Amino acid sequence: MVSGRRGLQWSLLQASLLVFLILLASSQTTSSERGRKKIVHVLEDESGAVVVQTAPGKVVTHRGGTIVLPCRYHYDVSAHDQDEIRLKWTKVTDPVAFVDVFVAMGKERRAFGSYRGRATLQEAGPGDASLIIRNVTLQDYGRYECEVTNELEDDAGMVKLDLEGVIFPYHPRLGRYTLNFHEAQQACAEQDGILASYDQLHEAWLEGLDWCNAGWLQDGSVQYPISRPREECGRKDTPVGVRNYGYRHKDDEHYDAFCFTSNLNGNVFFLKTYRKLSFAEATRACEGSRASVAKVGQLYAAWKIQLLDKCEAGWLGDGSVRYPIVNPRARCGGLQPGVRNLGFPDKKYKLFGVYCYRPAGVVAPRWGWEDQGSWQPLRV
């Protein structure tokens, strides 16, 4: 009788343990799915199936850098031949859209599109499917999926590639709220940038970005960051934060753009001349110093990353006039650091200095275009 009671207790204990394990597994699965967009970490099971494990969180680099997107896989070596394993990296461009980046099977290797010549597998031992990307571009920013497949099973994990850089609000000469989504993409590209993501805009807001005009983001939403609530920016009594207009019609609706740019592969400088210049003269002056008139994104990157600080207004490539301030002083436009914007003056009759951009590896001439179009010793 006692023995039977003990047996019954033991059976109940086993059943309780089984229920606990099932609930625990269910909780882990739900947690993994809930965090899939940010943290992907697929745990190895005991079934012998192929299991992928990627790094939690994100990896960070800058434009022009080299980065490793980590991914490892585990499989039953007694059941699968290594040459049967297919490794595939794709970039997530939309929730249901992917772009091929790299594929490997056996000894075959192939990179696609803009990744040709830049992407390769790390292959640092068995089960290493990590992807190396060299000369990282702005367009490389985003989420990547590492998928491992054999004849019967497959598994995948996500890695986010982030870039160090700077957000800059942008509108063209035509004025504010003149860009649809596609025009905003083009405007950012013309100014050495890409449309910013929400994460990038939110981080810029945490660092103090305050901008009263709504702008397109990479995902097709329209938002704007407010650090100092005021009546003209959605009322003074509304809380600080990144305010969201939601997803807008990409063709028919018009807003500004929030652009993102990263490290420069070159140098931005203010070209000293004996007199102020029209836009056409400024263009020739930069060309004479083996450079071009700097783009807006290049000036922002020089301000943020190279700490360019110059209290002199100068032409930029889009016809605007701006200047970068790292150390604020009253005579230089206020008490906050930033890139000051004087708008879009008349290109022919208004005279300013000029900011030039010279790519890395280009040697500056000893003589440059100066006053009255003559050649004088160059002063940079």
TrEMBL record:
SUPFAM superfamilies in UniProt: C-type lectin-like (SSF56436), Immunoglobulin (SSF48726)
Q: Which domain of life is it from?
A: Eukaryota
Pinpoint the Link domain residues.
166-261, 264-358
| Disulfide bridge map | 212-233, 311-332
Q: According to its record, what are the GO cellular component terms?
A: extracellular space; perineuronal net; synapse
Signal peptide as annotated in the record: 1-27
Which keywords label this protein?
Disulfide bond, Glycoprotein, Immunoglobulin domain, Proteoglycan, Repeat, Secreted, Signal
Domain (Ig-like): residue spans on this chain: 49-164
A GO MF term: structural constituent of synapse-associated extracellular matrix
Q: Name one Pfam family in it.
A: Xlink
Gene Ontology BP term (one) = inhibitory synapse assembly
Q: Where in the cell is it found?
A: Secreted
Hey, which family's this protein in? Answer: Belongs to the aggrecan/versican proteoglycan family.
Q: What is this protein called?
A: Hyaluronan and proteoglycan link protein 4
Q: Which organism is it from?
A: Ornithorhynchus anatinus
Gene transcribed to yield this protein: HAPLN4
